[in-house]
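Quick one, T. Sequence first:
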Amino acid sequence: MSPRKALLCACLLLLGSAAATAEPLKIGLNYPQTGRYKDQGLQQRLGAFLAVDEINKTGGVMGRPLELVIRNTRGEPAEGAENTAELIDKEGVKMVFGGVSSSVAIASGKAARDRDTLYFGTLTYSNATTGEEGQKYMFREPYNAWMTAKVLSQYLKTNHADEKYFYITADYTWGWSVEKSVRKFSGTEDTDANPGVKTPFPRALISDFRDALEKAEASDAKVLMLVLFGDDMVRALNVAYEMGLTKKMQVVVPNLTLGMARQVGPKMMSGIVGAAPWVWNLPYEKGYQRGKDFVEAFSKRYEMRPSSSAASAYSIIYQYKDAVERAGTTKTSAIIRELEGHHYTFLKDEQYWRAFDHQNVQTVYVVRIKDRNTVVSDEYSSDYFDIIDSMPGDEAAQTREEWNQRRKDAGKPTHL
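Structure tokens:
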């Protein structure tokens, strides 16, 4: 070993030793360990632990080791808010992140706000999260329903122009946001010409999905919008496949994740179209080295490919670390100032935290599920996504004027 490398190794060992003896810097992960979104929650946990271990091995955050404290939201807003309060008041965490339901993230964010603490939304797609319910303590890492709808509609208007749509939508904040946004940008706002039904949330039954799918089949629509997520999407798509609808209609799942695709399986998922902020093969196709490093580390450690949910949790921890180190403090107000307007490149191309609404602005993608043979040829049987379209973040996101109008319509000030 060269003298220079030996010195570097010694310095890293000293940093690691110092971090190990310093007071831990606690952060809280509030995610569903149980319930219909548990797979997406598990991916957050795996991504978060990987980030924490990597950071601690290189000296922690300002010499302090990160300590991850976790709670189970069970997918319930009240539970999420209660957990957030407990994490801050009893555990002493300096930041909380998580959420797989927008209603959970919004409720949790409010509990953090009341305690002068940052909350990062890890998997929350409702427009409301950084729109009418936006507040200065909430930062959203993934895209929102508006951005999803714009990129999807760009693809659908080119490939399915003038076709009839049928919407099956989860009856809660996220579902309403996505359906409204997709209808707006795809030109399918006429509910007589492009009908739909709502399914109960969070306790829909198989019979609810079957009834909705029978209505879709009877409508003679060519595009089936399944505005469902997690286990609900999995169960509905199983029924749709049994009914032969995946061969009769173009099925679109607005927010696709690797976990959902794996749960359904490549045979039934083949040809399904959706949107995603990130997929694991993107760094390889575009040459994003840091993204490839993450995929390799995650795959080796867990023997599976990471989903966008894992990537979001992983990214949030690194963004928090970097903001703390730029600020030189864990004081919330200082970290907010460091995040607002901050541009960075991490697992993909450039992203930034927009100052006026705390939305993460980033490139968004349309993906289509590959055929079964391609999927299973991957080492981890997870080569699901063919990236077929994209849109730059500034083009996909709401403008300041559009955001201001949403806030005014909700009776909220045009500032956080």
